[in-house]
Amino acid sequence: DITAKASAVLFNMGTLSKDRLRAMLISAQKAADMAKPIVLDPVGAGSTDNRLRSTMQLLRQFRFAAVRGNASEISALLSTSPITMKAEKGVDSAETTLEDKISLAKKAAKRYSCTVMVTGSTDVIANGGRVALVSNGVPMMSKITGTGCLASGLVAALCGCTEDSFEAAVTAAALIGTVGEIASETAKGTGSLYVGMLDTLTNITPDIFTQYAKIENCTGE
Q1: pTM
Q2: Which of 32, 33, 148, 210 makes a 20 to 30 Å CA pair with 194?
């Protein structure tokens, strides 16, 4: 019933269980039947066999509008077996090169025929021949658990407003980074930064967003 009323659906693999996977499969089928966009956050996809198998099951059975993850998580979705690289063991991997992230985003976007966002100090978004780099944000954001989940939520919310999942993901990346930058101006630590991000997200205007957004559109191959 909730899926039928939603404009978009987000699946977060962070608290995976058999019951939750079953619910995701039912929800995904309903969303597919109603042509609603589905967004995937493959949290820790390469950390365990079960987590990767469950994530791949969803990707095989349904077409997603967008997938958002860090470099290690997107790498896992392109691997043939779990934990093929050391970086895949963690939820938040050490920073890979920008070139690596561009390659990952483009390969995953091609394989799964959807928009893929690879997050980091510079976020990379790819879909078909379109590639964008978003350089908003502050280093302290990487120390807060849940900023990635918040970004995925924004991707899903915006996918519910437009049929262009690429533009939705680019806007979401710039928006989460922008609110982090603004909140950091008065934050005293990670706790006040997180609360400040939520407050800023509530009050931000289109003019402020345009002023802060750092988006570079590239040509994909």
Answers
A1: 0.90
A2: 210
